[in-house]
Amino acid sequence: MPSITAITDGLRRFLPARWRQAPPRVAVLRLNGAIGAVSPIRPGLSIGTLATSLERAFAMPRLAAVALIVNSPGGSAAQSHLIYRRIRALAAEKKLPVFAFVEDVAASGGYMIACAADEIIADPASLVGSIGVVSAGFGFDKLIERIGVERRVHTQGEAKAMLDPFRPEDPADVERLKAIQADVQGLFTSLVTERRPKLPGGQNLFTGAVWSGRQALELGLVDGLGDVRTTLRDRFGEKVELKLVAEAKGSFLARLLRRAGPGTAADMPDAMLAAIEERAAWARFGL
Question: Which is nearest to 134 in space by CA: 188, 61, 53?
């Protein structure tokens, strides 16, 4: 069924010429939350959850630009890169400029996604950066030894049980992980350098540190300070239409379980741990 916007645009052709001129339109898509699989019931940002919304945003008729409102502490490097690449591909295909607006935080993978935009605008009090790679986990080997549990793992391939949290940490595993992190960090650094060619020399911006929006502007990590409504009105005129693209609702099963309340899979320990992990990601930035 055609959308109201499509019907309106179709009827506009039958109006007198002086009434046909329509104001510029900008599709606005919110990208909120951690990146990657938060839990089966609470999926985070991923190419799977965003693909449809991105396609809809870039497919709107009469578009002057697409605006992304980014509010993410980061997460999966792979999903961040996939989302980045899809945005760049659609921008090139549709020949549309892309703006990214940072509200609370665009850190790590969140900043990678923001770099898909042609311009990044940040709130002065937002947090920007964290251009780095992190892996975190827990070690339970002392705990299971204390309670008398013996860990038994049998593998084919010496690295198959790498970083097993129930066994003492192996320096060779750590070295292998560091090599993987260095490779991903190299990709991240190259991406930012390519998309932000005016970064100043003499300062290492790839340490994983974060900066306020105002500091990020001075460092060349963003292009300006402001908010989506004010910036786009200044750029495209007071009558610009900001068309919010609704987020995908997720699978029927996930929606059903979320509505069902206590006593469902939403209360399972893995979902609780996922919520704690996500909360910890935001807490790193005081949010």
Answer: 188
